[in-house]
Structures
1.
Amino acid sequence: MKIPHLKKKPELKSCHNVTWEDNYSWIHQENILEVLKDKNKLNPEVKEYLENENIYADHHLKDTKDLQKTLFDEIKGRIKLDDESLPYKDHTYEYWTKTTTKGNYSIKSRKKIKSSTVEEIWNGDQEKEKLGVEYFGVGDLEVSFNDQYLGYSLDTKGSEYYSIFIRDIKSKEVISPEIKDTSGSITFSLDDNYIFYSKLDDNHRARTIYRHKLGTKTEEDELIFNEKSDAFTVSISLSSDEKYFFISTSDHNTSEQYYFKSDEEKPKPKLIKKRKKGVLYSVNSWDNKFYNHTNENAEDFKVEISNSLENQKWSDFIPPKEEVLVGGCTFLNNWILRSETSNALDKIFVKNIETGIEEELIFSDETVTVPGVSLMQRDKNTDTVYLSYSSPKTPSRVYKYNLQTKEKILVKEQEIPSGHNPDDYMVERIEYKSHDGRLVPLTITRHKNTKLDGSANLLLYGYGSYGSSMNPIFSSTRLSLINRDIIWATAHIRGGMEKGMKWWKEGKLLNKKNTFEDYIYAAKYLIENKYTSQKKIIGMGGSAGGLLMGAVVNSAPELFLGIIMAVPFVDSLTTNLDHSLPLTIGEFDEFGNAKDIKEHFDYIYSYAPYNNIKKMDYPHILITTSLSDNRVLFDEPAKFTAKLRDYKTDNNLLLLKTEMNAGHGGKSGRDGAIEEIAVDYAFALKISNKI
């Protein structure tokens, strides 16, 4: 099979007196945001290259076709296809979603309280069929407070430009014109005469909040808020007591909030606290008091309380704790629930408002779990909530829990139709030393029969950006590898918030290389302790986790058998230098500003995967991307693949698969998602000689 080659058109680039050659920069089109909306605008030469890479990848994976089918059936066989969520009780109706055996998309249903008549108000498969589209992304499904209208937003390209529609539930008539180019979120006013939504600008940034009166033309929509900074994006939400709307505007590092009363005829947002660089805050309203979840003078957050926003006097309600991430509050009439995270483990606490006593809710004897809490109803005058937990070996269990009596009733258990015995699996949480002595949490899941003598293959998963923590959840899909003697390890590396804000700060900006070193040292620990051996590890990460994979494979290729990178952020220097791209400016506090700050340029240039490809042997590599992805443009992995083909000195597989009808999240629909996982896992099993 002929190896695809992308034509070289050398271009010299320079910044801060540094000059470098880029042979493939020509594939980036000036009208790239238009291409995301309309793939027919893609350069035909680039399209041909992507299609040739797809043919090449399919050729080298053709011996896994039967395995892919087996994996697909296995993974789907672990999903209860005809499933229902637990109901949420509104004033008049109970609402829930369900999936069916044949459908790929969810159905939203309701019934009047104390009635048995079920009404289907949304059927994703039917809606997709009506539109006749290949990609079908649902952004939001919101029912008005009077239960008459359904607001929904759709993305039919994968480019995350959502159109909003408002439908009368009874007549099924669309009562307002399509609202285009929104972020997808829908917020109804309490009187149900309006919706609030955020509009995307020319650079795909949500910087304005509009109010749309139902039944009127979109040209008449009223601008409520306009964010001036290119780096900030906006959203709107209703307070817990439904007395206020809060407009939040933020980047990853700094936030600011405005409020107006929910019954204001002409909303005029008022500032709560002026933004301060590095300060995040989020105010909520409950029982005539205001609660502020903030990191101001509290690195790992605290919760403050004030009786007024006009005359603010904040005092600590939940004080800060060292390297313990304090979460926000959920309110009931008699209770306040909140979360904490430390050492990559979450905890749930409940406070009795009357007595002031707070206690941790513990409902499993497993040491590595993911607990959760959610409300059962809109009426806050209740002692009962849904409590849930799962672990890497235990499927999700949900209980109806009475906070007063502490009575616990199991109401839903994640069913694995093909069968699952948690006792067949071993879960370990260890901490290993990184390059600078920092202890990094590592969660390891394996089959009890897998030998720990260095003979096993191991998949090492990592992310480490934006403060996103990798929770040790149950994943039925991973069992397809674990059951075949591939150990699954998740490294809770710096750049996430598994150990608080400091953990994030130590893995971003001029500390970004800590993320990569933490991951490499995880691999070394696993080798030294006989979980696996050199060249038996498969690295896996997506998006910013793809940046991690690219940096790591350039730095320590000898450790790995293979690398799987999805929608990878691998041309990070080029993207950082282009301030017109959707995410670049908003991420200066995450990755830096290479264009304006030489120190940032030098640092990013020293690790950016595309710029640091070397003439050496690389492991097997599978790269997947999507044509309509606006977060990580397809040209990043395409350029990375083309350059890597020029430089690598081995005969290992290098495969690029581009989904031509999808966005950052891959294919839409249940089957589409499973198909993509099956390809990744088939690649892992192929290079591990487990076909």
2.
Amino acid sequence: MTAKSHPLFLGIDTGGTYTDAVLWSEGGGPKGKVLAKAKSLTTRHDLAVGISGAVDAVLQESATDPAAIKLVSMSTTLATNALVEGQGGRVALVMIGFSEADLARDGLKTALGTDPVVFCPGGHDVHGNAAKLDLSGLEAALPELGRSVSGFAVCAYFATRNPAHELAARDLIRDKTGLPVTASHELSAKLGGPRRALTTLLNARLISMIDRLVAATEGFLAQRGIAAPLMVVRGDGALVSAAFARQRPIETILSGPAASLVGARHMTGLDDAMVSDIGGTTTDVAVLDGGRPRLDPEGATVGGFRTMVEAVAMRTFGLGGDSEVTLEDGALDPKILLGPRRLVPLALSGMVHGEAVTSELERQLRAPNPGRMDGRFAVRTGVPDRLAAGLTAPEAKLYETIGSVPLALDRLLASNAQNATLNRLVARGLVHISGFTPSDAAHVVGKQANWDAATARLGAELFARRRDGRGQTIAATPEAIAERVLVTLTRWSAEYILETAFAEDGLDGAATVAHALVQRAVDAHPGIARFTVALDRPVIGLGASAPLHYAGLPPLVGNGCIVPEDTDVANALGAVVGQVRVSAEARVSQPKEGLFRLASGQTVRDFTEEDKAIAAAEADVRALAAERAKDAGTDSAEIEIATEFKVSTIEGQRMFIEAHVVAVASGRPRIAV
């Protein structure tokens, strides 16, 4: 049987820099067969452009009829990158039953930033009993908020035990504004109000971004005559339908990395490995154990925020091919620093905008002394104007000055205050900074050639002119600084991989000591106490630039590094070989002796017998899991139910405290017939 006689699957990965596509068939051996693969630049102003570039290329290469594709599956790092870079829409947070002091917990105040928050009386206790709800303050604020935010996040006290007050607030906001609303009970059944509020806030910020991605993909597929279901990879590596992902975009954080783990296992067959996936913006490091990725029981941590999203136990570092390259301040012999912010590489800007960029770089090189803003440009991202709602007067004025052609920062900015204003526009996702990156360094030394090497060399020359603490230039030639940047990136990659290994071994609390020891080991530092470190398993290096940046990795980590043949499209491949997996949960508590209260979904019911309450809980979660599995995109779900009891024994008598019932439904996604 030929590969083309099997169902064809299209995998897409929309990353911060590139959009990848892969056409895969289940035939051709136990691992199936990659029929074609391609890359196209991610076009943030119109995501459909980058998607169409990659998908059209694989269709053309494989001479495939689009109608023959039976499933489309997509992973993305856009949500992860947005949280790492502090980007997202402006949203309003509605806190019901909480006080302002609760904002100080779990990083909620930091995450909120300058976005508005409304406090309302109400909420419930641990058994679901209601306090008095008053939404008058929220209703009064809605006319102004409706004009200045892109969505709302609603979190009520103990909403996981009774969501009634969140539902009332959600319905009021939708009725008065028509804007998207995320309620916290829809995302997590776990206790911990401020962290649940944080997760809900981040979800609301991401809705417009993921909505644009899904809409762009669906529009493109329709234009090409691809009538297959569209799936999205979640942060735990499972697949869900596009409609499911649109409502819960926070669950797509670490989507790309999770897909890459599925792809890494599929390509190498390794059961135990460290997986390091380097992209344009981030490096994601995780562990394969027994053929499955480790999941984070506490919830995914991205951009410094601990969420309640169940996801791969992935450590995400702001280190990639497009990381900002800067110099350590005030040191006699300053170190090269990388990230965490992503810049548009100068080589890419030069390729797209040509003379507008190179003429400015040449002007700066003619100056007798290096300037603080040399080699830096600002350009609009091209997002819709409605996402610029709520700008301050200085922000709006600067935003108007910046256009679709890169503008040199030394011409744009007149003060430090304006620089801070520009950084706020970048954080809102409205403006990109273009500057010198490791991708440029790779172009300078001839190890990368997909963009404009001449522009990259001008940027390297400007960076090499910078001065150390002694007033000397930091490098003699553009090639010298480029090599130094690339060596730094490989070294930092080794440190992050080893740091992850220490954390997975339970040594996260000793991170400072571990970091110092890792540095000594990586440097092969001579000393009375010599220290070496080695991984017990190989590294699987993923990402288009992995062959370049990980070539020098083995001696630094004390084990081998395997870079698979299709490493450049591991995410896209992982997107099509995964399974749908969703869960539902319920809790039974005992508010008073002889009364058993069941909270499941959006309902609360009371029983007088424990057995009947547990039976109802198991029936509820089975039905909920089956419904969610269908919504998530599978018609063949297998459901497993687990019940955990909390009891105590008093004078030999068993005393029921609480029961936690979880149903997990999993199955292959439905495909077009």
3.
Amino acid sequence: MEAHPLRIFRNLSRSREIFTVLLNHGFGDLLERLKLRRYVQWGRRVILRKRQSEIPQHYTTAERIRMALEELGPTFIKFGQVMSTRPDLVPADVIAELEHLQESVPPFPSEQAIHRLEVEFQKPIEELFAEFDREPLAAGSLGQVHRARHHDGTRVAVKIRRPNVIRDVERDLALMLDLATLIERHIPESDVFDPVGLVNHFTRTIRREMNFCREARTLQEFAKLFRDDATLSVPFVYDELTCESVLTMEFVEGCRADDQVGIARLGLEPCQLAANGARIFMKMAFELGIFHGDPHPGNIRIQLDGSIALIDYGMVGYLDHAKRDQLVDLFVAIAHQDVDDAVRLVEEMGNPSRQIDDVLLHADVQDFVETYYGVELARLNVGSMLSDFVSILAQHGLRCPADLMLLIRAIVTLEGVGRRIDPQFNLAAELAPYVERLVKRRYDPKRMAARALADFRVLLSAVHDLPIHLGNTLEKLGQDELKVQLEHRSLDRLITEFDRSSNRITVGLVTSSLIVAFALIIRSASSSTWITVPVFALSGMLGIWLIYGILRSGRL
């Protein structure tokens, strides 16, 4: 769908608020380049709450981006948090600022929460729960959590979606997509950041988080996958008290992963806890292909029996066998100092946004491999290695798949959490067995035979369909119905410029004709000067306006 500046004004109040924040934080030049200033110039004095001179000059661009997102509210804050997971697209200084984004959202009235529960389940609150705490336990941009007690005596956490949050988020998503489209159109150097792609990725992410049924299914899937693993505790979901806007699950007790005093009070061994957490995550990512996407300390609880509980399953990543194999192959290539194979993997894992300099890429990958080749396992910093790998992708304009990027960020976060629990923690020691196991599994005779059989079936199907496709092509060719579709990139922009130029030529010709015609009429001393003089003046003003518009556009 093509974006047009006028579409941004579908919601005048919210658009005005966005423009106000951008102007207040010194991004007026962005509106200028997007050709939006002429649409907001009429209201500049109204919407500009601060004078430009009052904008703090000592803030960096990254800091101003963070402050603008915080002021724009929950949807934009979450967008910044999602962008912080894409160091392959977003500059490092902006990433560092976006990681400091914090949601500061007041809770909504408990009466509204109770009303939502009673409407969704068609029962009074007394029949739904034995006890319900009206004081919210926590509040976020999408919902808030209340403590309650089930009729069977179990303590539960009830997550309730905010009123009108879908309407507000969808409104902001539409405006963000329009702005991203305009940025790509008018700011060519933004292609490396893929603005529309970032917004589309964020749209998928936040829509998943707003659907609590999806989070409930994810919880149940993790519970099934780890039912025989006592080191991970997954909260039980109450299906009869769960719907798209309400999630009821077992209340998770325990202390945070960064609460060293609490862990010591429980009498648990920090080194064992850190190792268990790493093994859980490695099993998720490299064996099961589904992993918790945000394992920061606030989402991890250490329980009395030493088991680890993860909460907030709204952000989850998925890795298919191909991506897992590529990541494992990267570790193997580094271990074997195979630069050519590492270069091949980098090119396969990243989607190029511009022409790649193969010589420079090979040199950078060689330097990367030599940096980590021969490093003792006990000294290997996995987080640093993956961060350097992402830097290579960013430098060469290679866009990493979103889920793979989420995994890399989660591993980096996990290593930091592990070292908070145990300063001697080494993630590489826990990662190595999984890499070795996956390499051995890849060359397992049964798996190789199954893969060969699957490839043979695909080949056989292609051979079977080849005569049919060839016959259809020859039939269309014989009937002159064969069509070839060509994609003209940026042709719509060329057509727009031609259309604009032709309009200016037409207006110019009409204006000049009117000026000459009415000048002759006035010269002939006609009695109808009371008509001709105003029209002559109006024609002159139209000509001046046309010249001003051409000069203002900078395209004389």
